[in-house]
Amino acid sequence: MQIREMEERDNQIMEQIIKRTLESFDLDIPGTAYFDPQLCSLAQFYKEQSNAKYWVAVNEQDEVVGGVGIAPFGQKAGICELQKLYITPKAQGMGLSKELMKVALDFAKEHYTHCYLETVKKLQTANLLYIKLGFQQLDKPLDCSEHNSMDAWYIKELR
User: Fold this and answer.
1) Using CA atoms, how far apart are residues 91 and 49, in angstroms rounded to an integer?
2) pTM of this prediction?
3) Residue 149 to residue 22: CA distance in whole angstroms
């Protein structure tokens, strides 16, 4: 697998990966990434923000099989958000989420002091990975949270 920065040609496939994954967990509901207005143009969205990037994982056949992003969180100085970590079912179980997160967190350490993320408890494998990578669970979301259907929130000190 190769991890590279997302390009505009990856927009449609990443949107499909995100939507299919959310549908598979019955999370194609308001208050999730499913309805984010920038979902069809992620490459441009991340390029327009300062200290933000989105990476995709590409297999040997040059197919995008997953991705992850880092972007500033609201108006909170020093806090970024780990966003839109999604992997196709056929690419799961190979450590790809961990590799994508390593790339994202290495970038985040260069620009931020803390990394925040939101998820749902029923995504048990993801929650275990976040804890394993040093994220601490919070009792409630940080102010400025836009995804009100989430029920699990984490933060990690980067420095």
Assistant:
1) 29
2) 0.94
3) 12
Cα separation of 80 and 64, whole Å? 24
Instruction: For tokens 């969180």, name the residue.
Output: 73
DSSP element (H, E) containing 57: strand 53-58
**Alpha carbons 118 and 103: distance in angstroms, whole number:** 19
**What sign for the dihedral angle of Cα 41, 47, 50, 52?**
positive
19: three-class secondary structure by DSSP: helix
Distance CA 19, CA 88 (A): 11
As a whole number of Å, the CA-based R_g of the chain is 14
58, burial (CB in 10 Å: exposed 0-12, middle 13-18, buried 19+): middle
Taking only the tens place, the pLDDT of each residue in 116-126 is 999 999 999 99
Question: Can you tell me the mean pLDDT for 63-85?
Answer: 93
